């Protein structure tokens, strides 16, 4: 058996943390042969609850769980970490503008980026889940100058999975037969779920997209506003599905995406598809040899181009706001 992989989870006592940690410890994220050592980071008020979760993790007697440590300081929490899941974030409060939210999260993701820079393992991979995920990932990456930028990613896998199921239901096929879905842009309501390149049980997604009324009035808004719909229904934001998407993202990043398919992730732009270099934007991606690669060569119609550009424009505004705050 290999030596344990150090996995740091921030916001460990939150609702996503509770749905995530048991799946990591059971081997669903890194596979059945890889032991893990969990490093839980919370704010001081969250430490007691994190200790309770750690007791429950112990009580599962997971064969792959090599140890659990709990921290309220990012510097030791990221010491030697191989996989960092940045879940803890400041939620939007009443009367908070987007700028206030970005500033509050800057206070979290800047020191966490610095701590990753100072102490993480050379192979560290970072997934930012906490919102606004793309820009929080940009802040963390900017404050970790010694870590390659492509190690910082933002989660759009939940949006991707939501889109797969909506299409499968529409087409009446098993979700496993929907491939090559793409989420472009920001993990926000401006995101663009792109069906045109998908393969829906052998039928081109473009054929389903010919029903423009369904595409524009049902499919795209259902996926893009699903987070709000879950909050409305559940009285709390998506947690188990978000944890599931984080497991999927890291699993595929480390172990590779299946042949003949791709997935979606917020990765640093190299200028592909006209997305400004350095922005962390969602793209169609495959993982080969432990690295994400942006799928190249997809044709974007004027309709798709407009949608991608609108979401990327929002990412540029967010980048400008955090630049003005001195966070990047
Ligand atoms: N990218 C995506 O697809 C999704 C992102 N989210 C986002 O994930 C984040 C977490 O969601 P939940 O677990 O439901 O929230 P939650 O409020 O239940 O838990 C957040 C936890 O983070 C902790 N925390 C706050 N600041 C911290 C810091 N500086 N260091 C360590 N821990 C800290 C809090 O004490 C709390 O325990 C939110 O920002 C939410 O909007 C949620 C669903 C999907
Ligand atoms: O909308 C929210 O607040 C949570 C979220 O990011 C999602 O469910 O996609």
Automatic annotation (TrEMBL):
Keywords: NAD, Oxidoreductase, Tricarboxylic acid cycle. Substrate binds at residues 92, 98, 131, 162. It comes from the Bacteria. Gene3D superfamilies: Lactate dehydrogenase/glycoside hydrolase, family 4, C-terminal (3.90.110.10), NAD(P)-binding Rossmann-like Domain (3.40.50.720). This is Malate dehydrogenase. Transmembrane segments: none annotated. It catalyses: (S)-malate + NAD(+) = oxaloacetate + NADH + H(+). Residues 156-323 form the Lactate/malate dehydrogenase C-terminal domain. Coiled coil: none annotated. Belongs to the LDH/MDH superfamily. MDH type 2 family. NAD(+) binds at residues 11-17, 105, 112, 129-131.
């Amino acid at each position: 058996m290999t030596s344990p992989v150090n996995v740091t989870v921030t916001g460990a006592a939150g609702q996503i943390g509770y749905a995530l940690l048991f799946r990591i410890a059971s081997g669903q994220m890194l596979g059945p042969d890889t032991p893990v050592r969990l490093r839980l980071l919370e704010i001081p008020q969250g430490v007691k609850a994190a200790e309770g979760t750690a007791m429950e993790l112990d009580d599962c007697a997971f064969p792959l769980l090599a140890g659990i440590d709990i921290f309220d300081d990012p510097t030791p929490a990221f010491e030697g970490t191989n996989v960092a899941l940045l879940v803890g974030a400041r939620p939007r409060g009443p009367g908070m503008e987007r700028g206030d939210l970005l500033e509050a999260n800057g206070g979290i993701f800047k020191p966490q980026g610095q701590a990753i820079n100072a102490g993480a393992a050379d192979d560290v991979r970072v997934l930012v889940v906490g919102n606004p995920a793309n820009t929080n990932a940009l802040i963390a990456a900017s404050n970790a100058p010694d870590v390659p930028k492509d190690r910082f990613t933002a989660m759009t896998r939940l949006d991707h999975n939501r889109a797969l199921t909506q299409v499968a239901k529409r087409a009446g096929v098993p979700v496993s037969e929907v491939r090559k879905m793409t989420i472009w842009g920001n993990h926000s309501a401006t995101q663009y779920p792109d069906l045109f390149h998908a393969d829906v049980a052998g039928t081109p997604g473009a054929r389903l997209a010919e029903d423009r009324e369904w595409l524009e009035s049902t499919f795209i808004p259902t996926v893009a506003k699903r987070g709000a719909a879950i909050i409305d229904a559940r009285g709390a934001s998506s947690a188990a599905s978000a944890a599931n998407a984080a497991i999927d993202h890291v699993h595929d990043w480390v172990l590779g995406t299946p042949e003949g398919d791709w997935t979606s992730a917020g990765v640093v732009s190299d200028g592909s598809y006209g997305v400004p270099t350095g922005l962390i934007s969602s793209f169609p991606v495959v993982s080969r040899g432990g690295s994400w690669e942006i799928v190249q060569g997809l044709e974007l119609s004027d309709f798709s181009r407009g949608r991608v550009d609108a979401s990327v424009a929002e990412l540029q505004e967010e980048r400008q706001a955090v630049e003005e705050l001195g966070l990047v």
